[in-house]
Amino acid sequence: xxxxxxxxxxxxxxxxxxxxxxxxxxxxxxxxxxxxxxxxxxxxxxxxxxxxxxxxxxxxxxxxxxxxxxxxxxxxxxxxxxxxxxxxxxxxxxxxxxxxxxxxxxxxxxxxxxxxxxxxxxxxxxxxxxxxxxxxxxxxxxxxxxxxxxxxxxxxxxxxxxxxxxxxxxxxxxxxxxxxxxxxxxxxxxxxxxxxxxxxxxxxxxxxxxxxxxxxxxxxxxxxxxxxxxxxxxxxxxxxxxxxxxxxxxxxxxxxxxxxxxxxxxxxxxxxxxxxxxxxxxxxxxxxxxxxxxxxxxxxxxxxxxxxxxxxxxxxxxxxxxxxxxxxxxxxxxxxxxxxxxxxxxxxxxxxxxxxxxxxxxxxxxxxxxxxxxxxxxxxxxxxxxxxxxxxxxxxxxxxxxxxxxxxxxxxxxxxxxxxxxxxxxx
Amino acid sequence: xxxxxxxxxxxxxxxxxxxxxxxxxxxxxxxxxxxxxxxxxxxxxxxxxxxxxxxxxxxxxxxxxxxxxxxxxxxxxxxxxxxxxxxxxxxxxxxxxxxxxxxxxxxxxxxxxxxxxxxxxxxxxxxxxxxxxxxxxxxxxxxxxxxxxxxxxxxxxxxxxxxxxxxxxxxxxxxxxxxxxxxxxxxxxxxxxxxxxxxxxxxxxxxxxxxxxxxxxxxxxxxxxxxxxxxxxxxxxxxxxxxxxxxxxxxxxxxxxxxxxxxxxxxxxxxxxxxxxxxxxxxxxxxxxxxxxxxxxxxxxxxxxxxxxxxxxxxxxxxxxxxxxxxxxxxxxxxxxxxxxxxxxxxxxxxxxxxxxxxxxxxxx
Lengths: 427, 365
Fold this sequence. Notes:
The complex is a heterodimer of chains A (427) and B (365). Chain A is built from eleven helices and 17 strands. Chain A has 427 residues and is of the alpha/beta class. Chain A has one domain: Alkaline Phosphatase, subunit A (3-Layer(aba) Sandwich). In chain A, a hairpin with a 6-residue loop joins strand 13 and strand 14. In chain B, strand 6 and strand 7 form a beta hairpin. Chain B contains no helices and 30 strands. Chain B is an all-beta fold. At the A-B interface, helix 10 of A face loops of B.
């Protein structure tokens, strides 16, 4: 009998997926009226703990068409660079709104990793764990923050606002399913958050209490990862039901929704703001898709045209609410794109160098770290490894990346032990 | 009738075969005759009426003029300065002495004396974002531009003053063409919507539907496709639009297509397909005076010329380029037998649709 609560079995994943993403109606029954979110309430929450907002630009954002433009070179593409709010720093013209908040950001133009997997999934894992996926699995950022920062409040510690067709996955590795991302596919709330009309509230409450008693008796004799996963999933499901209004962006004013844009990504950013205001520890928003093997310029024009404004708007909103003091903002992508422009005007995968952006809590902002050469084919100054960035993401929110996870008596380093944080990025 | 002398590979399909006219162009005999080399990919090309010069736009910020009278292997190339980004939009004036060009950041330049010492007659910021296409009216008095700001604009050709501002497209406008009668302007967008505008009033007349060339990729959450090439036949009774169908996302192209429309009814009359439904995009198209249609295109797997007769959806001939480079644009020389093709690998290639002269027979001893 497996008594290791963190055995890494896929069964944990399945149980959690089925309960948190579909919100088993049997778990329903506690008060369904939630609080409306108000910034003043959020401030109280934020004053107590650190939060993290991660933007994943899925597919591989082109550094040329974003934060490391090389106009008028053989690799630079057709777009111009524009000045930013930081004197001497230029972004690609596809990011005019982000350029205006550059003084609140730190840009790293010299990200790299060795032996990056060709697959997007593997490369994403590398970026979010700081370890080559072939050595893993290791938990992604969200689960790590959930484990180390979350105070087991009313909401899950780790929510991923994902594009449609993205489902849950076991991204918590040895941390266990309790910390795996709650994936809101297409920004939609978990299914079945309403108690079926056929079940009265009192009887549902009674069912829940009965289940708790049974669980308690069972777990006193046979505590396993399975029972823990079931219990935490039921409990979290109940918490979500209490706060189901959190997922309803329509509760925001028309003006607010217009500020973020009428497209999915704008809606997802507004949803992320609501979650951070409500106290969720780590929110990840994924924007799809930058894997522009053909017509890179058309697609970056389209995608960054969608990304730029909501990103800058959300960042500014967090700043106005005073939340950046306690919220780390990270913009990541799995690799860069080739300097060479391919025959169908695409750019392929390029792990030798790319850009990431940070802001908010614990970050020294208003500058650029690292540089690439004139046409972006190689790093010219201060290479920054993805493992160093993982350490930095931890240290920025006051966590010790050199500490260890204690997993069933095994001590596993939080960050890759051979690397350390990037001091220049930390305030 | 000459024998096929393909560059690399010739494939014929069943159905009506095209028969070249006496002294006409012979697609089956298409052969590469000259490469005009550059160190950047070429996006657009146009013959100057005397055929002495070929103009091109490339992955740099210049309009390039090749002097074909120069007999050096690569041709004599002269870059014309003035643009701020890549030049893809290019159209000759009917007088053959002027050229209108547009770049990726919205600048429109009208060049004069293009057969002598070219200079910018005017240079204006015409669009926010790329100018995707430019067209000059048959009387040479108007220049129409289409851009990424979803707008169509019409300018006076002599001074660059805005004459019409045509709003209505709901996405990037990819192409534009004046009808040969000069009384209509047609604009085409990413989602395959064609808008017919009355000239000179600018009144919107009707929409034509080329949405076969558009896909929304759920997986990649992007709009994919668009009308890449557009051309009327000489009397304006037919319109050809090019692009690709079935594009799955942003990583791989779909299947090249040329759609034919009957101008009067606005109805789609033919969906022209390549020989083997190659994974490719059809980028450019021309109606040949001899009655066939030729399009260029390709993807990273290769570049092609395809030939059709309007009555048959299946191509009667294909030329696959030796180089793995799509043909982003093509133009027909005034002789009707030579095609200039803009290739991504940094060359304008000239193909002659005529059999090579026979080598003199070796004298017998």
